[in-house]
Amino acid sequence: MDQIAYLHLLAGEKEVDSWTRIMLLYNSALEEINTKIAILNEEFKQTHRYNPIEYVKKRRKSPESIAKKLKRMGYEDNIENMVTYCNDIAGIRIVCSFTSDIYRLADMIGRQSDITVLSIKDYIKHPKVSGYKSYHMIVTIPIFLSDNVVDTKVEIQIRTIAMDFWASLEHKIYYKFEGDAPEYISHDLRECSHIVSMLDAKMLSLNEAIMREKKRQSDEMTVEKGAHQRLETLLNAKSNSKS
Prior knowledge:
- This protein is 60% helix and 18% strand.
- The protein is built from seven helices and five strands; from the N terminus they run ααβααβαβββαα.
- It has a five-stranded mixed beta sheet with strand order 1-2-5-4-3.
């Protein structure tokens, strides 16, 4: 069942008890998604000898933040509206090395059999007006309770280190101006966002060049090793024929 259906099962309970139970779902969903990402992280370290994940952050929106968001959206502040309209109460952010890692990880997460992808917003290919770039997925994951299984929503954000740096500073700047920064500051932030995109593209290109060079060196070593082995075999054959 989804969270709304579960909330209706709790109709006879006090609001504070319903809140506690719903928050348990969000906390559990965060732990489930975090565990999945940790497993992928460990697999990359041990199997692929390359780890695209730099770090992971997780958070749950505070009651105050939820109330403010509902107010901005024009909805009454209650639990049902929260569950229905706030898709980012439970959020996890994956920060990667390169832009190519973002799509690779998103694909791996989306293909997991117990995860349902509800929506995707690609702010990398289609940045926000502010210059914000990130890859957002709204997913559900089943939470197994003692008597019910509840599909619970989590927002997953995937971005590069440079994108995360820009987003963090943008948030701090707009917070200082209470969301109403002067136009020249907004303009400079958009310029910085463009620089971040160029940096990401340059670092990805550099990484690809490094990988090509490593492959070339590996191929050369393989050819050289093969030549040495053939020469050694030939010399041994001649030595044996003389004896």
